[in-house]
Specification:
Strand 9 and strand 10 form a beta hairpin. Helix 3 crosses helix 4 and helix 5 runs parallel beside helix 6. The strands form three sheets. A six-stranded mixed sheet has the order 6-7-8-3-9-10, with helices on both faces. The protein has two domains: 238 residues, 3-Layer(aba) Sandwich (Rossmann fold), CATH 3.40.50; 67 residues, YebC, transcriptional regulation domain (Alpha-Beta Plaits). With 339 residues, the chain is α/β, with parallel strands linked by helices. Bound molecules: adenosine-5'-triphosphate. The site of adenosine-5'-triphosphate has 15 residues, from strand 2 and helix 1. This is ABC transporter ATP-binding protein. One of its GO terms (cellular component) is plasma membrane. One of its GO terms (molecular function) is ATP hydrolysis activity. It comes from Natronolimnobius baerhuensis.
Length: 339
């Protein structure tokens, strides 16, 4: 089943094309990541999918409902957690969830049971009656994610779910996101500019750059597209005899020789290090060091966009809107509020 279909979706702001003719699908139950630098167009895409922004062209369906013609049904089937915190700090955790449930018109009995389930899911049962102002950053984020799940949406949108969190809270939040995806079977679309987040968490990742999708696949397939791991052998003597032997090995995808080193591309390099050392011995070539590098999404980003994500983030700083629309604060183009 398909959770989301995106068909030629485009958004222009004056001369700026924030989202440029995107077409892709998200499967039901999938944890789908939009990875890209600040200003790539991720938030704009999400805002169109959750019906907060009107597309310039194209359309999409969410849980089978068209974002242009069935806005109410789309809104009933989604949960949203934006970058900007949208909790009432002067209420307790449980009260924040109750407020949300009342807005969705959940009956009291159902609401109370759901609040306890959600608090347990995000591990905040013991803090249910503490004021949110006393929560840590990670706890607030967990409560927000839980709140997005209160009305049992089919699809949950998370815009930069771990931005501003320390490394420990980030990892904890990843665990909760994964748990919700697996246990509640909910489809999740998240945006991130953290390589590791996309790599660790997502079933499939779309690399978004300048409003377009530069690559889309599972993290493993994206990394695999680079042709394998790279082992760099630094040599103290003439490399030629070793190159001759590498030429004959079927498990060597390719090798390049630079000054004092041979870079060998191959699959599952860790299982071939001993073979490489043996070949060097047999060729009578002295090695001074061996370095093994696995491709990561950073190298994929570099390969498909021509620059690193950090370079793009630095260049894009100030070009993005820098803020997400908080829940309830819809832009002028949106006719109705959304919670
Ligand atoms: N309301 C707006 N008016 C004019 N330009 C906008 C508006 N919203 C976004 N943009 C522009 O559209 C482009 C994409 O911005 P968007 O916020 O979608 O990127 P992003 O990938 O989500 O980055 P960030 O995480 O920094 O928000 C940027 O060039 C941005 O300046």
């Amino acid at each position: 089943m398909t959770a989301i279909t995106v068909d030629g979706l485009t958004k222009k702001f004056g001369d700026v094309t924030a989202v440029d003719d995107l077409t892709f699908t998200v499967d039901s139950g999938e944890l789908f990541g939009l990875l890209g630098p600040n200003g790539a167009g991720k938030s704009t895409l999400i805002k169109m999918l959750v019906t907060l922004l009107q597309p310039t062209a194209g359309t999409a369906t969410v849980d089978g409902h068209d974002i242009l013609t069935e806005r109410g049904a789309v809104r009933d089937s989604i949960g949203i957690v934006f970058q900007e915190p949208a909790l009432d700090e002067e209420l307790t955790g449980a009260e924040n969830l109750a407020l949300h449930a009342r807005m969705y018109g959940q009956p009291k009995a159902e609401r109370e049971q759901r609040i306890e389930e959600i608090l347990e899911l995000v591990d905040l049962s013991d803090e249910r009656d503490d004021l949110v102002e006393h929560y840590s950053g990670g706890m607030k984020r967990r409560l927000e994610i839980g709140r997005g799940l209160m009305h049992e949406p089919a699809v949950l949108f998370l815009d930069e779910p771990t931005v501003g969190l320390d490394a420990r809270s980030r990892r904890d939040t990843w665990e909760y996101i994964q748990q919700m995806n697996e246990e509640a079977g909910i489809s999740i679309v998240l945006t991130t500019h953290y390589i590791e987040e996309a790599e660790q968490l997502c079933d499939r990742v779309a690399i978004v750059d300048d409003g377009t999708i530069a690559a889309l696949d599972t993290p493993d397939a994206l990394k695999g597209s680079l042709g394998g791991d790279v082992v760099t052998l630094e040599v103290e003597t003439d490399a030629a005899p070793l190159c001759e032997r590498l030429e004959r090995e079927s498990w060597v995808a390719e090798y390049t020789e630079t000054d004092g080193a041979i870079h060998v591309t191959l699959d599952t390099a860790e299982s071939r290090v001993a073979d490489l050392v043996r070949l060097a011995d047999a060729a009578d070539v002295q090695l001074s060091s061996i370095d093994l590098r696995k491709p990561n999404l950073e190298s994929v980003f570099l390969s498909v966009t021509g620059s690193t994500l950090d370079e793009r983030n630095a260049a894009g700083a100030g070009t993005g809107t820098g803020e997400a629309t908080a829940v309830g604060e819809q832009p002028a183009e949106s006719a109705e509020g959304i919670q």
